[in-house]
Amino acid sequence: MTGTYRLLGVLLLAFVVAPALAEVDVNSPAYQSATAHDPNFADRTIWPASVEQTDFIKQEWPKARVLVFAKAGETIRGLDLNDAANWFEDGEPATSGPDEKTDVVFPTADKAYRINGNDEGFTCRHITVGSGVSISVRGGNVHGNMWIKKGATFAQGRPQGDANTFMRSDTVKPNRIANKILHNRARTSSIEWIGKWDLGDELDLFSGTFIVGPDATFNPGDRSVQRVFSDATLILMSGSTFQKRGSQYHSSDMEIEGVFLIGTPERPITKDVTLGLSRKHKGDARLSKPSDRGLVLYQKGKMHINSADPAKARLIIRENSLPAASHKLSPEEEKEMPKGIDMLLLGEMKFDGIEFHDVMKGGILLANPQTAATWEHVTYASDNLAAAAELVGKYTGSMDGKINPGGGIAGGTLLNQKKPASEDDK
Predict the structure, then answer these.
(1) For residue 102, how far is the Cα from the chain centroid?
(2) What is the pLDDT of residues 348-404, one digit of tens each?
(3) For labelling, which of 220, 233, 256, 400 has a CA lying 20 to 30 Å from the CA of 209?
(4) What does residue 88 show for φ and ψ, rounded to 5 degrees?
(5) How confident is the model over 117-157, as pLDDT tens digits?
(6) DSSP strand E in 220-286: where?
(7) What is the pTM of this model?
């Protein structure tokens, strides 16, 4: 594509108005019939035009068995979802249960229903959870797309495999998809999260691409570090929000050794993106230490902003003001908390369209403070805790820091448990 046509495409994309998920007519035939295995991407009442730019729309899937839950409308505890007796296939009783090459549907029924699976969990390819359905399993291994319809929930889902997939939740409140997600896929594959999501605990990205889609919200837990390792990429798309589900006074919120993108050159942001960071105690409170920060970009890491209009579509960095959901401080410890957020930025930065809020004095630590002068379309808001000239500080510590691979991995949901991605995956 020539430069002229590429620019024209970007400008046109800036004016595409996507239907908000909250505005989707859940009673429409198009919405009711669409599934994770047959998403009907062409219908603009349920998918925005920007879906054409995604990786998951290009993914090809071979034809597969489709199992429909046979006991829709019944609330059951301890159900074995691997048992063929619980499924229909082509309108007839299934002869075998689901596996990684099988698509499953929990259909909307005349009344809401809840299914609690037994300890074995189950495995499928694509999964659709219809409106009014609540599914909770020990481990639901999903090798394809996931679509949780409005008014539904799905707990302990585990995205697996190396395909380019979407995870869509049309719920009003964030869907607690799992306690932990340890994302380890081929470097060429991606998951795009659509709608509102949260986790009970950590999000670790070992390899592959993790995308928070347009206008989506993703809230990892507030008792661990969210780590992006060298083979992984985290992307926040236009209008999205990424922050912990509660302010975390201890440990760093995020550590980046891989790639952290705000939009991409092919999908630049057209609306503000929000990154919420927690204040840190930095004292003698439980689990806290002076080096805790809201964001750490290590020397090998990269953080780039790709905006269609940097004066209007920016990365907004602000304090996560949500109350702590897990580890909480005493009233006395709360009083000791320093005001403001801080970050350590040592890696490659391409900032064009960024706005800082709630930053403490010297809270933007750089190896060379003059780096900040190379940033474009930068705003230091009036609610920072010092004058703009005092927000940037010089870092004098070691430049050899890197993510600690321990701490919290044991007992997590290691997606695609295999060796880390190799050079062949690049």
Answers:
(1) 25
(2) 999 999 999 999 999 999 999 999 999 999 999 999 999 999 999 999 988 888 887
(3) 400
(4) -110, 145
(5) 987 789 999 999 999 999 999 888 999 999 999 999 999 88
(6) 226-236, 241-242, 254-256, 259-262, 273-277
(7) 0.90
